[in-house]
């Protein structure tokens, strides 16, 4: 029996050197290679006659060699080899550049099938750099050929050869692990056929069926795994059971505002979870400004009053500092010790904090990701909260769990997503939704304008600043280039400071500044020592300056809808009428449609659905960003229909057989275990 888990190094054609190249592509075993999905295909099945071909098109043709090869050398380093041919419709030439060695390969009267790009030079039809073979061979021409993602030092043809070798020797060992009834119910291709056809599809139709089968299995396994993790969490009575204490109600009564109904509902869900002896794993979704922080504040209060420590993580230092400040304010008058731990704190102070955290004299620690590092030890961690942290996945939650004795966990996010996606991206979590904004908020007025309006906008900013308000000016990240981004921000800043608003206090904030500088600028803005803050998207999450009521976003067309919505959430936090002005420099109808959506609604749920429709799931909706295993073939957006089927099936199976004990699920069970192994969240069935 040849095992699929065999190291790729032992495949025919692979030695140590090539194996290391393959490992770069994530191919460690034979099975990895069998599941190495082409990124695209070269369809060489469409046979045409020369007369039918369009110029510039790639086509397969059957031709006959008419005469001798002819070589021209128009300049140094360039030789053109031309061989006259004809097909049943017309005469033409096979043309190769710098491949003189082909000159004597063919004989007059020989018939070939070729595939190449059709070109016209003067009155000549040429088939340029064609792939060729003998008629009837069907190795290269007349097939759909895979195009693989590559890395340096390995070519597509080499991978094709290796895949052929692997298929030849190992395909018959690939085990059908889906039960027969599922295969029949969804009319799925069998796994061996699917793997074969994903590499070398016999037809477009079979390729589609192969994709469907493999996407289905991938989504089914992932979804089942997530449901199993969730079930396991629910069944394990090893969580902390926090006491029901009256102080929490008193604390809520004493808040400077009364909670919205939505906040009350979510607080209740969290309290109930905390009182149960199973570990809480809850996602709190709520639009920007819906008041998630206070919900966290209450949960932390409950944990601390029950004698436990709590941790609150934020994605940036600015946000962490801000949470630290507001926690201190909320807990004023209570004996709750709150500390801030971020990179910019001096080493000595850090060490002191770490030791007080360890001996239990700190109750609540706020910080960035740094607070789940190895050297951070708690005395009695009971609750861990992460804010605005989309990239906080199964694995990191597992790390946190080990920092305490199965502490309760809350993840807060302002990016709402449709249920189908939430089920998979947050499939192992319970979900609470704050679907109501605190009362008295004035709707933010949003305008999308062209760059010709910039002068009028500046006048408007001036008027507001004179009245005592503050403004954000946001400029986009530039094509992954930090330097260019910062340069653009600096230029804008200098222009505002020196030319446009010489009488106002203008500040600059960008991601590459030292944390200390950032904090300082943010602090200055908060204290109204800065009127106008020019910034990159670093202000995207969380910062709260109620006196700021204008946001102008330059090149708004470069942002995602969800991101614009998030940015816009920085204003409209106080009692002043707030404005968001989107400067759209693009005439593209999709950009205009996106601007229109933002003008027409401030409901984050609506916006995220439209965003998905318009641009697909993109970065944010990838499984990896959510700390889940990477999807190799399925696409959460384009395969939404398959996702729904897989989810329904996963749910049915888990309901019927929560621990997957039935014989026909044993093989799926192994696949699930395999998928999640190494995720830090091993799925153990017992
Ligand atoms: P987000 O959900 O975006 O994190 P925050 O928690 O920062 O929102 O809350 C936004 C603002 O609304 C804060 O100034 C907060 O104090 C205030 N707030 C929260 N809940 C209420 C409420 N029930 N009534 C009035 N103001 C509230
Ligand atoms: Mg928040």
Report on the architecture of this protein.
With 686 residues, the protein is α/β, with parallel strands linked by helices. Among the domains are: 46-142, Nucleic acid-binding proteins (OB fold (Dihydrolipoamide Acetyltransferase, E2P), Beta Barrel); 246-275 and 291-413, 3-Layer(aba) Sandwich (Rossmann fold); 445-601, Rossmann fold (3-Layer(aba) Sandwich). The chain is 38% helix and 18% strand. It contains 21 helices and 21 strands. The strands form four sheets. The protein has a seven-stranded parallel sheet, with helices on both faces. Strands 16-21-20-17-19-18 form a six-stranded parallel sheet, with helices on both faces. It is globular, with a radius of gyration of 31 Å. It starts with 15 loop residues before the first helix and ends in a 10-residue tail after the last helix. 41% of the residues are buried. Magnesium ion is lined by residues 292-293, 387, 542.
């Amino acid at each position: 029996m040849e095992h699929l888990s065999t190291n790729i190094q032992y495949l025919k054609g692979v030695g140590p050197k090539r194996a290391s190249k393959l490992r770069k592509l994530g191919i460690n075993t034979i099975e990895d290679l069998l599941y190495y999905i082409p990124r695209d295909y070269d369809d060489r099945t469409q046979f045409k006659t020369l007369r039918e071909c369009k110029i510039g098109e790639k086509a397969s043709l059957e031709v006959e060699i008419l005469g001798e090869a002819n070589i021209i050398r128009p300049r140094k380093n360039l030789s053109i080899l031309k061989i006259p041919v004809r097909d049943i419709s017309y005469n033409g030439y096979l043309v190769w550049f710098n491949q003189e060695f082909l000159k004597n390969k063919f004989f007059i009267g020989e018939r070939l099938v070729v595939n190449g790009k059709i070109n016209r030079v003067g009155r000549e039809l040429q088939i340029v750099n064609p792939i060729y073979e003998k008629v009837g061979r069907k190795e290269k021409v007349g097939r759909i050929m895979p195009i693989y993602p590559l890395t340096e030092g390995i070519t597509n043809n080499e991978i094709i050869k290796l895949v052929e070798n692997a298929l030849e020797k190992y395909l018959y060992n690939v085990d059908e692990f889906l039960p027969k009834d599922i295969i029949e119910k969804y009319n799925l291709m069998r796994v061996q056929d699917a793997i074969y056809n994903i590499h070398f599809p016999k037809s477009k139709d079979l390729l589609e069926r192969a994709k469907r089968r493999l996407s289905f299995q991938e989504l089914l396994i992932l979804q089942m795994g997530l449901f199993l993790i969730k079930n396991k969490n629910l069944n394990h009575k090893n969580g902390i059971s926090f006491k029901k204490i009256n102080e929490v109600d008193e604390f809520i009564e004493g808040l400077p505002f009364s909670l919205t109904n939505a906040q009350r509902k979510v607080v209740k869900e969290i309290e109930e979870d905390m009182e149960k002896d199973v570990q809480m794993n809850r996602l709190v979704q709520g639009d920007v400004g819906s008041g998630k922080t206070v919900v966290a504040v209450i949960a932390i209060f409950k944990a601390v009053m029950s004698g436990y420590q709590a941790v609150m993580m934020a994605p940036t230092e600015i946000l962490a500092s801000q949470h630290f400040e507001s926690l201190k304010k909320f807990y004023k008058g209570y004996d709750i010790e709150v500390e801030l731990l971020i990179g910019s704190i001096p080493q000595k102070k850090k060490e002191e904090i770490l030791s007080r955290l360890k001996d239990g004299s700190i109750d609540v620690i706020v910080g960035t990701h740094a607070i789940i590092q190895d050297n951070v030890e708690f005395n009695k961690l009971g609750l861990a909260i992460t804010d605005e942290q989309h990239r906080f996945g199964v694995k990191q939650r597992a790390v946190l769990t080990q920092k305490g004795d199965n502490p309760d966990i809350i993840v807060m996010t302002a990016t709402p997503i449709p249920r189908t996606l939430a089920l998979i991206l947050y499939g192992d979590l319970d979900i609470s939704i704050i679907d109501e904004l605190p009362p008295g908020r004035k709707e933010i007025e949003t305008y999308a304008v062209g760059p010709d309006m910039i002068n009028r906008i500046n006048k408007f900013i001036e008027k507001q600043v004179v009245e005592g308000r503050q403004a954000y000016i946001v400029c986009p990240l530039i094509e992954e280039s930090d330097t260019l981004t910062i340069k653009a921000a600096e230029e804008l800043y200098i222009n505002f400071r020196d030319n446009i608003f010489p009488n106002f206090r203008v500040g600059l904030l960008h991601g590459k500044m030292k944390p200390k500088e950032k904090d300082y600028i943010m602090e200055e803005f908060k204290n109204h020592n800065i009127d106008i803050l020019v910034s990159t998207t670093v202000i995207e999450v969380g910062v709260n300056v109620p006196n700021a009521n204008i946001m102008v976003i330059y090149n708004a067309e470069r942002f995602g809808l969800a991101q614009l919505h998030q940015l816009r959430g920085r204003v409209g936090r106080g009692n002043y009428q707030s404005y968001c002005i989107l400067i759209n420099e693009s005439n593209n109808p999709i950009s205009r449609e996106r601007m229109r959506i933002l003008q027409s609604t401030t409901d984050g749920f609506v916006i995220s659905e439209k965003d998905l429709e318009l641009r697909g799931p993109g970065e944010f909706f990838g499984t990896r960003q959510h700390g889940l295993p990477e999807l190799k073939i399925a696409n959460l957006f384009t395969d939404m229909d398959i996702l729904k089927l897989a989810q329904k099936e996963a749910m049915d199976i888990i309901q019927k057989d929560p621990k997957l004990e039935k014989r026909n699920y044993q093989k799926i069970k192994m696949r699930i275990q395999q998928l999640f192994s190494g995720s830090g969240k091993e799925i153990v069935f017992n």
